[in-house]
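User: Can you predict the 3D structure for this chain?
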Amino acid sequence: QVQLAESGGGLVQAGGSLNLSCLASGTFLEIDAMGWYRQVPGKKREPVAIETRGSAPTYSDFVEGRFTISSDIAKNTVLLRMNSLEPEDTAVYSCYASIRPDIGRALFAYWGRGTRVTVSS
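Assistant: Here is the predicted structure, written as structure tokens:
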């Protein structure tokens, strides 16, 4: 069974920084991608940043160069460094991983429980 555990959320003032980290654990063959999504109450979950093995990371437009994702597939970890945070970044941030459980199996999407980020004005 695969589990994703996030850490690093919290309260920060506008203009501040936070780092989020995520560790994938369990039994599986390989990780194809890791990244972060976020959800504001009443809105759909939206991607923040995704890093796929062998490809450059992708960021949503609202990131505007403020966030940096870095994954270490060998260590099953992904880090999101967030700078210049704005009140509009307030959301629950969830770790995402696309994982192949075993040989011949399709990739599955896994999600962490989420960590809350609150940016005060």
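The mean pLDDT is 95. DSSP finds no helices and eleven strands in the chain.
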